[in-house]
Fold these 2 entries.
Entry 1:
Amino acid sequence: MGVATVIGKRTTASSKGFTLIEILVVVMLISLMAAMVVPVVSHSVEMARESALKENLQVMRKALDDYLADTGRYPQTLQELVTRRYVRFIPQDPVLDETEAKWTLSYVEYADGSRGVRDIRSSSQALADDGSRFDSW
């Protein structure tokens, strides 16, 4: 009777935990689900960057147009848009790294020899989700 009790307690004690096989199956399932989620998340991050770039370009181009409408000239630098409060700050290009995030500017030459910033574009030559290049937007 004493042996049966010991064996009964062992089986009860071992049934409280997980076997190595059960743990490996759970880890495998979690890894499989994570592998399916990573591409979706990665693509949504890229879509967010594209959307942010479109918004930044729209805001900056509107500020340039408003400046032209108010003064009759384009600003000589983008910083003038901040100084005259057309925008709060010059946004960074979200599709480029912070170290290389520089805008490509188009200028207009005036008769007095000065020039003004007429347009702003991304410097990135990467392709967008629709197949167009960011620097063509």
Entry 2:
Amino acid sequence: MKKLLIIPALLLALNTSNAQAQEPTKKKKEQTKMELKDPVCHMKVSKDAKIVTTHKDHQYAFCSESCKTRFVDNPEKYVKKD
């Protein structure tokens, strides 16, 4: 009888462990949704970044004023061509 109780307990423990292992993945996806990439240096920038500019009706965020300046001086170098 004790063996029968151990099996469900082990299955429950494995299931809980698996759910906890997946949790960081969910957090990473949530973080990715809340981040942009600086078009000049490719660093991650939050969507509420203070250093931004607009080019051809698209807003770009930057990690620093230096990256923004480089972008403004030559935006076509950093914008993907469709």
